[in-house]
Amino acid sequence: MTSEESEFVLLYSLWLRANGLKHSDQNLQRFIVYLASSRAAERSTQQPGVGAVRQVTSSGESHDLGPKSNSWFTWGVLVLVGVIIAATWGIITTIQKTNRDTVTTSDTYNSGFSEPQVPMPSHGESSCQSPWMAPAELVVEVPGGSNTYYVEIVSAFGSEVCHAIIGPGRSLTLGMPTGTYYLKYAAGTRWYGYSYLFGPNGSYARASESFPFSTGDSWEVELIRQVGGNLGTSGVDYYDF
Questions:
Q1: 127-155: b or e for each residue (b if 16 or more CB lie within 10 Å)?
Q2: Which end of the chain is less packed: N or C, by CB atoms within 10 Å?
Q3: DSSP notation for 87-131
Q4: Which residues contact 147 (CB under 8 A, 6 or more apart)?
Q5: Cβ(49)–Cβ(60) under 8 Å?
Q6: Distance of alpha carbon 204 from alpha carbon 208, whole angstroms
Q7: Could you tell me the end-to-end alpha-carbon distance of the chain, in angstroms, rounded to an integer?
Q8: Residues near 84 by Cβ (< 8 Å), separated by ≥ 6?
Q9: pLDDT tens for residues 116-152?
Q10: What angle do CA 37, 45, 48 make, to 5 degrees?
Q11: Cα–Cα–Cα angle for 30, 70, 86, nearest 5°?
Q12: d(Cα 212, Cα 42) in Å, to the nearest integer?
């Protein structure tokens, strides 16, 4: 950094402190205008050789903040340096913001997971029996919003019985065989296929209760948080789902 650049940065920092401001592109431009206008005013009201920027604190103390040179060339150089620094800071700020956005996107969706996203399945897509042909049924309702739900019915041994896709704010009736089963589900907005579901950024949970089905039985499950709800659930890690 040249002596002119160092001097400009010092003046700018002290000007920010004197005015109780923080650095921004707008404040940097204001300071450059202030620097140029101060020199113009000085030339019209002061004798050559007398020039200073001064901060007066609340205690009455005075501190010199700027050069005492009367050289118009020196002030012109400082203003030019300020314009160059302003442009440079603007470029750096843009690059830093772009890098942060890139890192955020990468960390959020691709950290340790590189499977391609595929189209979201339609509501009602299911491997379960038709409720009109099955001996029992299970009605599942999910909350509104942006999340699509994947619901899976499993046996006491953890093997899949059937699964279904339920769209936001909708319900679906699933045909069930007789027996006792458990329910687990996942929710998200990005779909990576039935092997990877919503990826590591989805939400995954399991109902703590079992559901016994006999011929003619019908269970209704609302996966919606509510006061007095009687369905307990617990979160499940994506890789343990």
A1: ebbebeebebbbebebeeeebbbbbbbbe
A2: N
A3: HHHHHHHHHHHHHHHHHHHHHHHTTT--PPPBPPPPTT-BSSBPT
A4: 168, 187, 188, 189, 203
A5: no
A6: 13
A7: 56
A8: none
A9: 999 999 999 999 999 999 999 999 999 999 999 999 9
A10: 95
A11: 25
A12: 91
Secondary structure, 3-state, 166-177: ECCCCEEEEEEC
Is the whole model's pTM more than 0.90, yes or no? no
Provide the token pair at 208.
């703590």
The arithmetic mean of pLDDT across residues 23-33, rounded, is 76
**Residue 43 clears pLDDT 80, i.e. is over it:** no
CA 194 – CA 188 distance, rounded (Å): 13
Higher-confidence residue of 95 and 207: namely: 207
Is the CA virtual torsion 11, 13, 17, 20 positive or negative? positive
| pLDDT > 70 in the chain, percent | 63
How far is 89 from 95, CA to CA, in rounded Å? 10
14-21 long-range contacts, CB within 8 A, separation 24+:
14/53, 14/55, 14/63, 14/65, 14/66, 15/53, 15/65, 17/55, 18/55, 18/65
Contact 213, 188 (CB under 8 A): no
Amino acid 191: pLDDT: 97
- Plot region of 144 (φ>0 → left; ψ -120 to 50 → alpha; else → beta): beta
**The two structure tokens encoding residue 29:** 């431009």
CA angle 192, 196, 200 (to 5 degrees): 90
Closest CA to 141 of 118, 117, 164, 159: 164
Q: Could you give the 3-state DSSP secondary structure of residue 79?
A: helix
